[in-house]
Amino acid sequence: MPPILLSLTHFCDKHGPRVVLVTQCYLAEPNTSENDLLLPDYPTDSYCESCLLHFPEVSGVPGDARPVRNMRSRIKGRTFVSTQYSSIRYQLLNSITRKAFSEETMIYDCSPLVFFDDSRGLNLIIGFKLYDENARGNERRYCYILTIDTKDVYNGMNIISDNWNFINCGLKKMIDDIRQSHTQVLNERRLDAKDNGGIDGLTQFAVPYLRANKSKEAKNLVELTNDPLIFFNMHKWNSYMISSLIIRQH
C-alpha cells in the first residue's frame, strides 16, 4: 500500500503557494519512526496568518497556554499525524502545491483535477475559494490535495477509481463545512452593517473586483470561519478518510 497524504494548501498573498496542513499515516516505512512525522518546533517567521496552521492551544495552568504544532490520533492501531508540513516529504508537497496553483486548467468550483508524474506521484486536487475583502482580488484560494506517493500509476489509479465517490464526497464534505461556516460569518457581518447603518454587505459581493483593497490583512481559516476547532476537525476527518482508503485496499 503506497503512502497516502491529505493536504490543505493555500495561495498566500505574501508567500505564494503554501501547505497549511498535511495529514499522514505512519506505515512503518524504512528508516522512519512515528516521531519523524512530528514537528516539535519550527520557525514561524516565514508564515503569516493566512498560511499558518492554528491548532487549539493547550494549557497546564491558567495563563500558560502554548501553541500546538502537531495533532496525533490512532485509528484501528494506526497512527495519524497532522502538521504544518511534512518533515519527510517537504520537497514533494511543495512541488505538488506549486503545480496545483500554477496549473492553467485549475478552477476553484470544486471540480476535481488529477495529474501524475514520476516525481510527484498521483494527485487528486479540488480547489475552492472564499470571499475576503482584505485579500488580493477579494478572494482566498485553497486546494485540497489527495496524494498517493507512488511511481506505479496503474496501482494509484486503481485506488482512486475504486474509491472515486468516497474520495470526492469526503473532500467536498470538508469544503462544504468550511464554506457554510464562512457564509455564516459573512451573513452576520452583513446584518451588523445594516444594524449600524453601514453599507449592505450584498453590495460588496455585487462588485468585488471594482473595489480597491485599502488594506490586506492576513486571515486564516480560523478567522474566516470563526471556528477555532476547524483544523482539529480537519485532522479527524483526514485521518478517517486515509484510514478508510487503507482498509479498503486490504
TrEMBL record:
Pfam families: Folliculin (PF11704)
GO CC annotation: cytosol; FNIP-folliculin RagC/D GAP; vacuolar membrane
InterPro entries attached to this UniProt entry: FLCN/SMCR8_DENN, Folliculin, Folliculin/SMCR8_longin
Record's protein name: UDENN FLCN/SMCR8-type domain-containing protein
GO BP, sorted A to Z: cellular response to amino acid stimulus; positive regulation of TORC1 signaling
GO molecular function, one term: GTPase activator activity
Gene behind the chain: KNAG0D04090
Species annotation: Huiozyma naganishii (strain ATCC MYA-139 / BCRC 22969 / CBS 8797 / KCTC 17520 / NBRC 10181 / NCYC 3082 / Yp74L-3)
Domain annotation UDENN FLCN/SMCR8-type: ranges: 58-250
